[in-house]
Design brief:
Blueprint (H helix, E strand, L loop, with lengths): L1 E3 L8 E8 L5 E6 L11 E10 L5 E11 L7 E3 L4 E2 L2 E2 L9 E4 L13 E8 L9 E8 L9 E2 L19
Parallel strand pairs: 1-6, 5-9, 8-12
Antiparallel strand pairs: 2-3, 2-4, 4-5, 7-9, 10-11
Length: 169
């Protein structure tokens, strides 16, 4: 498994969480050199992936399905395909983070894995009224071509929150 950053170079940090979509078994692994090897028994798997810069100021998320049939398979998390996850919040002075999503391939209409994103944003230290935002977005069939979303103080999301990077069958 290979993790390529936005510029195509190996990612400083990469992580994958996989779930066997038939049995529900799951596990995860991370790397700091842009590569890792997984040994998985045959089955259908959902993969939630994350890459980050050394200081964590930018993150790239992906989700994909893969059928493991026993032979060796190569899998690349291609950050060059990532789109900015634009999010809007009511506060104008919030410290925004650089978030990106790798859209799931259009031909994957039968995509089985979902994805939950959670990001914490805080206001500046000198804000008159301290505040924070917990951004949560859940998609149940891969990552859409436009992974943007809006959060407002007066309308909290009505979708269930899950743990960051979880794979939902």
């Amino acid at each position: 498994m290979k993790f390529d950053w936005l510029d195509g170079k190996p990612a400083a940090y990469g992580a994958v969480m996989w779930t066997n979509l038939n049995t529900g078994e799951s596990d995860g692994m991370d790397t700091e050199n842009g590569k890792l090897t997984l040994k998985l028994p045959p089955g259908e798997y959902g993969f939630a992936t994350q890459m980050a810069t050394d200081n964590g100021d930018a993150k790239v998320y992906g989700v994909d399905d893969l059928a493991v049939k026993g032979e060796t398979a190569k899998f690349t998390v291609d950050g060059r395909r990532a789109k900015p996850m634009k999010y809007n919040v009511d506060a104008t002075d919030v410290e925004k983070r650089k978030l990106y999503g790798i859209p799931s391939k259009a031909e994957r209409q039968g995509h089985k894995s979902g994805f939950a994103l959670k990001a914490e944003l805080t206001g500046p230290a000198n804000a008159a009224k301290p505040y924070s935002y917990s951004l949560v977005d859940f998609v149940d069939k891969g990552i859409p071509a436009d992974p943007s979303f809006t959060t407002r103080n007066d309308s909290p999301p009505d979708r269930p929150a899950r743990s960051p990077g979880s794979v939902a069958p």
